[in-house]
C-alpha cells in the first residue's frame, strides 16, 4: 500500500485510535479484575479472622493443641512472653512480619499487609487483636514446654498465598496480549477495505478530471451520489462548464477580432495592388492612399479598443478609489455631444442631473457613457431627439440615455453588449462602429460594481440605463 495515500493514513489513524482504546480498555479490565480479586481475598481473610476470633473455640483448640488450619492458610499467634515478641504458627510456618505491625495489632489496631512466607511465597495477611481472660497454653514444639499465657493480649494473623491471583492475572494479561494484536490485525484489514471503498469515488473523479483536457471540455464527471463526494463532482463539473464557456468565448473573440481586422487589411491590400498594377494619375494615387489611410484608421481604432478591453480584463491601470462627480462628468459629455447633435440636426434634451458621487475611474466612466451617447447620436436619424438625465436615489445613481432612433429587437437586447456584436454589420461598419463600444461600456460599469441594461422596441427608440453605486 502506498504509505503516502490517504487510505493508508486514514487506516493508520484509525488503528492508532483503536490501539489506544484497546490498551485503555485492557488496562481497565486488568486493574478491575486485580482489584476485585484482592478485595475478595481481603474479605475472605476478614471472615476467616472473625471466625477464628470466636475466642473460646480458637483458644480452646489452641489450648488442646487441636487447632486445624485450612489448606493454603497460614495462621500465626503473636504475643509477648517475658517482654519478648513471640510468633507461633500451629504449622510452624513462618511469615515475615514487621514487629511494629504486629505490636500495633496486639495493642488493638489490626490491619492488612502483603508479605512473604519463609518459603518465598507472597502472602496477603490480616492481623487482628485477640484477648482471652484466663490461661492459654500454646504448644511450643516437640520436646519443648508450651507457652503459658494468662489473660495476655494477643494478635491473630491470618494469611493466604496470593499465587492463585497472580496466576489468574497472568492468564488475563496473556489473553489481552494476543487478543489486542489480533483485533488490530482484523481491524486494519477491515479499516483499509472500508477506507478504500469510501475513497474509490475520489480516485474515479481524479481520473476523469485528468482525462478532461482543454480540447475535451464537453466531458463531465459522473455524479452517482448526493453526499460530499457527489457535491465535489458537481462543483468540479460546474467549474469545467465555466472553463468550457470561457474557452468558447475566447475562441469566438479571437475569431471575431481576426475577422474584424481582416476586412480593413483586405481593402488596404486590394487598393495597393490595384494602384500598383499600372501607372496611375496623381488623383488615383491620392484616392487609393485615402482609402488605405481610412482603413488603417479603422484597424487602429479596433486594435486600440481591443487593447483597452484586454487591459480592463486584467484590471490594469484602473483607478479604483477616485471620486467621480457623475453630474459634472455628464454635463461635460452633454456639451461635447451637443455639437455633434447640432451638426446632425438632432435635439439634445438634458433632463434633471442629480448630483452624485461614485467611486472609481473618471476616465473609464466617461468612456462608458460616451460610447452610449455616441451610439444614440449615430443611430438616431435626422430630426430625432437624444435625452440624458441622472436620478440619484438611495445607494444608487441612475444615468439614462434615451433616443428616438430605430430601436432594437427583443432578441438582440442582451446580445448588443457582447464583444463584436452588431445588429447590422454593413450599416455600422460604414458608420465606423466595431461592435466593441457597448461591450467596453458594460465591462467598465461592472468593474465599478454597477449594471447596464437597455429597454427598446423597434421603431420606438431605445433607453439605456446605467446604475452605479453611490460612494459612501
Ligand atoms: P458599434 O460600434 O457597432 O456601435 P456597439 O457595441 O456600440 O457597437 O453597439 C452594438 C450594436 O448595438 C450596434 O451595432 C447597434 O446595432 C446596436 N445599438 C447600439 N446602440 C444603439 C441605439 N442607441 N439604437 C439602436 N441600436 C443601437
Structure description:
The chain is rod-shaped and about 165 Å long. Helix 5 (228-277) runs antiparallel to helix 6, helix 6 runs parallel beside helix 10 (437-447) and helix 8 (362-379) packs antiparallel against helix 10. The strands form four sheets. Strands 2-1-7-4-3 form a five-stranded antiparallel β-sheet. The chain has a five-stranded mixed β-sheet with strand order 9-11-12-14-13. It has a two-stranded antiparallel ribbon with strand order 5-6. Helix content is 53%, strand content 19%. The chain is of the alpha+beta class. Adenosine-5'-diphosphate (ADP) is lined by residues 371, 375-376, 379, 403, 405-406, 408, 416, 421-424, 428, 433-439, 462.
Shape: rod-shaped
Compute the number of strand runs: 14
> Can you summarize the main beta sheet?
5 strands, antiparallel
Helix count from the secondary structure assignment: 10
Q: From the structure provided, what is the oligomeric state, counting identical versus distinct chains? A: single chain
Beta fraction: 15-25%
Order of helices and strands: HHEEHEEEEEHHHEHEEHEEHHEE
Which blocks of ≥5 consecutive residues have pLDDT under 50?
Answer: none
In whole angstroms, how far apart are the ends? 60 Å
Mean pLDDT across every amino acid position: 87
Distinct small molecules: adenosine-5'-diphosphate
Q: Pairing-aware structural class of the strands and helices?
A: alpha+beta
Question: Which percent bin holds the helix content?
Answer: 40-55%
- Rg, Å, rounded: 53 Å
> How would you write the strand order of the largest sheet?
2-1-7-4-3
Amino acid at each position: 500500500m502506498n504509505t503516502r495515500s490517504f487510505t493508508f493514513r486514514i487506516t493508520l489513524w484509525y488503528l492508532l485510535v483503536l490501539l489506544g482504546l484497546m490498551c485503555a480498555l485492557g488496562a481497565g479490565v486488568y486493574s478491575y479484575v486485580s482489584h476485585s480479586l484482592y478485595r475478595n481475598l481481603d474479605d475472605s481473610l476478614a471472615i476467616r479472622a472473625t471466625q477464628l476470633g470466636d475466642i473460646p473455640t480458637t483458644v480452646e483448640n489452641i489450648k488442646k493443641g487441636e487447632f486445624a488450619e485450612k489448606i493454603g492458610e497460614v495462621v500465626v499467634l503473636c504475643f509477648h512472653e517475658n517482654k519478648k515478641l513471640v510468633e507461633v504458627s500451629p504449622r510452624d510456618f513462618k511469615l515475615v512480619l514487621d514487629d511494629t505491625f504486629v505490636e500495633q495489632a496486639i495493642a488493638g489496631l489490626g490491619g492488612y499487609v502483603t508479605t512473604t512466607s519463609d518459603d518465598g511465597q507472597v502472602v496477603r495477611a490480616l492481623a487482628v487483636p485477640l484477648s482471652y481472660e484466663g490461661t492459654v497454653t500454646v504448644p511450643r514444639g516437640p520436646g519443648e514446654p508450651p507457652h503459658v499465657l494468662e489473660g495476655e493480649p494477643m494478635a491473630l494473623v491470618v494469611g493466604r498465598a496470593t499465587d492463585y491471583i497472580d496466576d489468574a492475572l497472568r492468564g488475563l494479561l496473556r489473553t489481552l496480549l494476543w487478543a489486542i494484536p489480533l483485533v488490530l490485525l482484523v481491524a486494519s484489514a477491515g479499516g483499509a477495505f472500508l477506507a478504500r471503498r469510501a475513497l474509490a469515488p475520489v480516485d474515479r473523479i481524479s481520473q476523469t478530471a485528468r482525462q478532461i483536457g482543454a480540447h475535451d471540455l464537453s466531458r463531465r464527471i459522473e455524479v452517482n451520489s448526493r453526499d460530499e463526494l457527489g457535491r465535489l463532482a458537481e462543483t468540479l463539473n460546474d467549474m469545467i462548464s465555466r472553463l468550457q464557456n470561457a474557452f468558447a468565448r475566447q475562441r469566438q473573440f479571437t475569431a471575431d477580432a481576426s475577422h474584424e481586422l481582416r476586412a480593413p487589411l483586405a481593402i488596404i491590400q486590394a487598393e495597393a495592388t490595384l494602384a500598383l498594377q499600372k501607372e496611375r494619375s496623381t488623383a488615383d494615387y491620392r484616392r487609393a492612399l485615402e482609402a488605405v489611410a481610412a482603413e488603417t484608421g479603422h484597424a487602429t481604432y479596433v486594435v486600440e479598443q481591443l487593447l483597452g478591453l484586454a487591459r480592463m480584463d486584467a484590471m490594469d491601470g484602473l483607478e479604483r478609489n477616485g471620486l467621480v462627480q457623475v453630474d459634472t462628468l455628464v454635463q461635460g459629455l452633454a456639451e461635447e455631444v451637443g455639437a455633434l447633435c447640432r451638426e446632425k440636426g438632432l435635439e439634445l434634451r438634458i433632463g434633471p442631473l442629480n448630483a452624485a458621487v461614485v467611486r472609481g475611474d473618471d476616465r473609464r466612466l466617461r468612456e462608458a457613457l460616451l460610447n452610449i451617447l455616441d451610439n444614440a447620436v449615430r443611430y438616431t436619424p435626422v430630426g430625432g431627439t437624444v435625452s440624458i438625465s441622472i436620478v440619484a436615489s438611495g445607494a444608487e445613481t441612475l444615468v439614462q440615455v434615451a433616443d428616438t432612433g430605430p430601436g432594437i429587437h427583443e432578441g438582440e437586447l442582451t446580445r448588443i453588449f457582447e464583444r463584436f456584436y452588431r445588429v447590422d454589420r454593413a450599416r455600422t461598419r460604414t458608420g465606423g462602429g466595431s461592435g466593441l463600444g457597448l461591450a467596453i461600456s458594460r465591462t467598465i460599469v461592472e468593474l465599478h460594481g454597477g449594471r447596464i441594461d437597455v429597454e427598446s422596441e423597434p421603431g420606438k427608440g431605445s433607453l439605456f440605463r446605467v446604475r452605479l453605486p453611490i460612494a459612501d
